[in-house]
Amino acid sequence: xxxxxxxxxxxxxxxxxxxxxxxxxYRMVNKDFITPVYYEQVYQQALIKTLxxxxxxxxxxxxxxxxxxxxxxxxxxxxxxxxxxxxxxxGSLPDDKIQKLAEVNRPIPENKAKLIELLKISDQxxxxxxxxxxxxxxxxxxxxxxxxNDKLKILLNNLNETxxxxx
Length: 167
Prior knowledge:
The chain is mostly helical. It has one domain (23-164): Up-down Bundle (Ferritin), CATH 1.20.1260. 71% of the residues lie in helices and 0% in strands. It has helices at 2-19, 30-52, 58-80, 95-103, 112-134, 142-164. Helix 2 (30-52) packs antiparallel against helix 3 and helix 5 runs antiparallel to helix 6 (142-164). It is elongated and about 50 Å long. The model is unreliable at 16-20 (pLDDT under 50).
């Protein structure tokens, strides 16, 4: 009987501590979200521009135009929700992104599959940034956190559309 009481007490304590609110809830500052998503959007624009320039890929042109418009809208909304101090300084992409772009910088059919794969990964990264921003230790700024959550559906649609492109 004592073992049952002990086990029940331990279970109760574990439940109570698991339900305790995190004292450090919403730790992420705007800049920690804005910088990576900004660079990821610039990177996606470069990938899409190269993909759209491949000769004979007429179907991709509509996809590229739509994504360009979504990116412009995304960045404009993000700018409206944040201050200029939160934005990265003007400059180039991170080295890993530059290297990946250099590998596929020519708009030739041989690069199409790699461009699509890089775009899929980038779409997944964008979703990851937004999930992280909306979790319990995500963005402190409620308006930006809510906006980030609202964008998840669009980002999932972007990934779905990218996955339908034939390599």
